């Protein structure tokens, strides 16, 4: 699909400097731009590339003035980065704008699909499922019995949503994600064996939640595992049974959260963080990558290390840790001197 500079400027409320009829059909980095592509310049360190780029159109800030002749048509906007992000969203909407039901696929007679939905081939929709308007469910996805999915949600290929789970509006569930698998519940018996504890709860994703590829969110033993509005989970994250994650919290890849832990709002959690069960993490907490959290955390704390310390204490301690061999050597020499004097 092709767009002219004039059309793109209309979408972005920008001004064209150059040929308004030039067309583009692809996006590119400014240093890799070629004819027929659109790019942007927001970071000043990339400014030299605007004079050599072969991109047909470049989005720039309104105050940009070239020092040399340009071969690219400019679209001037208030904020080039935000404008390009808006364009990416628009492009993605067009690319993903599929409607209809592909064959073969299975839809239970007791299920309800909203308007303008897309169901890819080999997708399965179980009994009593309710799917909202403009939902996209890509091939090889599984939607279990009694699931509810809100409007404008996208479920990519191979995602699995187990029975009784609830998915809000405008959510994105990426390929390989599993929502509602059984929590890790086993009880030892007198034979030294483990008996499975039935997991009869569900998972609730509120609106505007993003779930990364390969991420697993376990259903609650009783009640619900709850992911609040605006939460963003990266790829390959494990969220255990009865966990609750507060609004607008973001968690990076390979983090694991054990059962019944409560995480507050607006937290930022780095990759490969391990969080024990049955603790509470406050609001606005920042946890650095590869940290281990084994205690309750107050609002606004910044933590690092395993077991995690406050960020300042960790940095101070690390200075000593790096010099530990030298410190031990000095202590041994001091001990010899003291013992020699005795």
From TrEMBL:
Key words, A-Z = Acyltransferase, Lipid A biosynthesis, Lipid biosynthesis, Lipid metabolism, Repeat, Transferase
Oligomeric state and interaction partners are given as: Homotrimer.
What protein name does the entry list? UDP-3-O-acylglucosamine N-acyltransferase
The Swiss-Prot or TrEMBL record describes its family as follows: Belongs to the transferase hexapeptide repeat family. LpxD subfamily.
User: Active site: which residues?
Assistant: 241
Question: Which pathway does it operate in?
Answer: Bacterial outer membrane biogenesis; LPS lipid A biosynthesis
Region forming the signal peptide? none
Protein role:
Catalyzes the N-acylation of UDP-3-O-acylglucosamine using 3-hydroxyacyl-ACP as the acyl donor. Is involved in the biosynthesis of lipid A, a phosphorylated glycolipid that anchors the lipopolysaccharide to the outer membrane of the cell.
Q: Name one GO molecular function term.
A: UDP-3-O-[(3R)-3-hydroxyacyl]-glucosamine N-acyltransferase activity
Q: Which domain of life is it from?
A: Bacteria
UDP-3-O-[3-hydroxymyristoyl] glucosamine N-acyltransferase non-repeat region domain residues = 22-89
Q: Which enzyme type, at the first EC level? A: transferase
Q: Metal-binding among the record's keywords?
A: no
Q: What is its EC number?
A: 2.3.1.191
Cited PANTHER family:
UDP-3-O-ACYLGLUCOSAMINE N-ACYLTRANSFERASE, UDP-3-O-ACYLGLUCOSAMINE N-ACYLTRANSFERASE 1, MITOCHONDRIAL-RELATED
- A Pfam family per the record: LpxD
Report the catalytic activity.
a UDP-3-O-[(3R)-3-hydroxyacyl]-alpha-D-glucosamine + a (3R)-hydroxyacyl-[ACP] = a UDP-2-N,3-O-bis[(3R)-3-hydroxyacyl]-alpha-D-glucosamine + holo-[ACP] + H(+)
């Amino acid at each position: 699909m092709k767009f002219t500079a004039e059309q793109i400027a209309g979408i972005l409320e920008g001004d064209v400097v150059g040929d308004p009829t030039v067309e583009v059909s692809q996006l590119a980095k400014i240093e890799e731009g070629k004819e027929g592509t659109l790019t942007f310049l927001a970071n000043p360190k990339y400014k030299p590339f605007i004079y050599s780029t072969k991109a047909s159109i470049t989005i720039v800030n309104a105050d940009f003035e070239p020092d040399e002749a340009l071969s690219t048509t400019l679209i001037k906007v208030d904020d080039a980065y935000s404008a390009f992000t808006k364009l990416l969203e628009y492009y993605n909407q067009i690319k993903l704008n599929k409607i209809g039901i592909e064959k073969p696929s299975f839809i239970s007679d007791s299920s309800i699909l909203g308007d303008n939905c897309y169901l890819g081939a080999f997708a399965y929709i179980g009994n009593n499922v309710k799917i909202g308007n403009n939902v996209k469910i890509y091939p090889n996805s599984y939607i279990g019995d009694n699931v509810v999915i809100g409007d404008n949600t996208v479920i990519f290929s191979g995602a699995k949503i187990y029975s009784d789970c609830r998915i809000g509006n405008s959510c994105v569930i990426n390929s390989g994600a599993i929502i509602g698998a059984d929590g890790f519940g086993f009880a030892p018996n007198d034979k030294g064996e483990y008996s499975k504890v039935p997991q009869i709860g569900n998972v609730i994703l509120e609106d505007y939640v993003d779930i990364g590829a390969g991420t697993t969110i376990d259903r609650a033993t009783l009640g619900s595992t709850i992911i609040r509005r605006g939460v963003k989970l990266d790829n390959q994250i494990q969220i255990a049974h009865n966990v609750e994650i507060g609004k607008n919290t973001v968690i990076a890849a390979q983090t694991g959260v054990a059962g019944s832990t409560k995480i507050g709002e607006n937290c930022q959690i780095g990759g490969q963080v391990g969080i024990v069960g049955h603790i509470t993490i406050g609001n606005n907490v920042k946890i650095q990558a590869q940290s281990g959290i084994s205690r309750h955390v107050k609002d606004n704390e910044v933590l690092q290390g395993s077991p995690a310390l406050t960020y300042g204490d960790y940095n101070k301690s690390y200075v000593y840790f790096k010099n530990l061999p030298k410190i031990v050597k000095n202590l041994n020499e001091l001990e010899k001197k003291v013992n020699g004097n005795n």
